[in-house]
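Usage

Read records sequentially. Each one opens with the input sequence:
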Amino acid sequence: MGTKFHGRFPARKNPRSQIEARLLGPKASAELLEKRGEVDAGLGTAESKPWEFLSGIAKDAARAWFVQRAEDRGVAWRFMVEKMQAQQQDLEAHYDRIHNESIEYPDYYTRSFHGYDEGNLSWRAAHELAPATQSMCLGYYDGMAWQDAQEEFRGGARRAIQDFWAAGADKDPETLLDLGCSGGFSSKEMSKAFPTTKVSGMDLSPYFLSVAKQCYPQIEFLHGNAESTGLPDESFDVVTLNFLLHELPLDASRKVLREASRLLKPGGVLAVLDVDPKQLSALPPFRRWAFQVTEPWCKDGEYFDLKLGPELEPLGFQDFQQIANDPVNSLALARKAL
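and closes with the structure output:
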């Protein structure tokens, strides 16, 4: 039932020099490379904040490269950001309705993240959600436009979840919770997979949820912590985690898995789409390092030590399987015992 992908992850003759050539100037390029040793050392410590090793000029240069790379591949990054910024009044109205003032943010969530000094708690990060998401799979599939690559990437996971659910049920799920839903893109995919299902999304960023509600008003979005949602026991038929666990410390990931088990009805399905550590380790060294700079928990002792099969079995899950979704990510599926 695995999802197939086309070609191989594209080889780069010299990833480091390619990145250097696209940076804003030699000063930023030199600094980025000079700081690499410091960041490498920092990545080995639980409290490291590798993005903060880099100065403003290097950060701006790296971001400019990423944005231009997306634009060169057909993602209208700047246009999409301007379009979202023009809806700021609506976004702030959503924020006022969604924001849960009682939420206490974990320390790991308030650090720099994804190249943003403010992490996920900023309008800047929220405005860039759509183009950043569309850019995710650039390079996954040889010679494929980003629109087709998105469908291959998202659609493959969607169909696999549909098939896994159908193997144990004769009708669509009644309820589905998308934990760590970000801008609602994965929640939208689940609505497409199960048109009659009540789909809800939860995220810790009220900024991201405001964008989600603006884009997908038919879906319920909740401001909450996936480690402890406050939702009733056994209230969902399906729980999905899309690119959430690699963004968490190992202890927090385990809490999320326990919470997912608590929320699922007997026979319910858990689906986890995320980075495959083996595939990440196979990336060219500079590209892998550049990824880890903005993903502080993608390292040994944290996400790389999370083995879903052994983690899920004592939580009451069975029928576990893990398949390649694309050249970089895997999809894990399991069913809560009756």
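Summary fields computed downstream for this record:
- Strands lie at 175-179, 198-203, 220-223, 236-242, 264-275, 317-324, 329-336.
- The chain has a mean pLDDT of 85.
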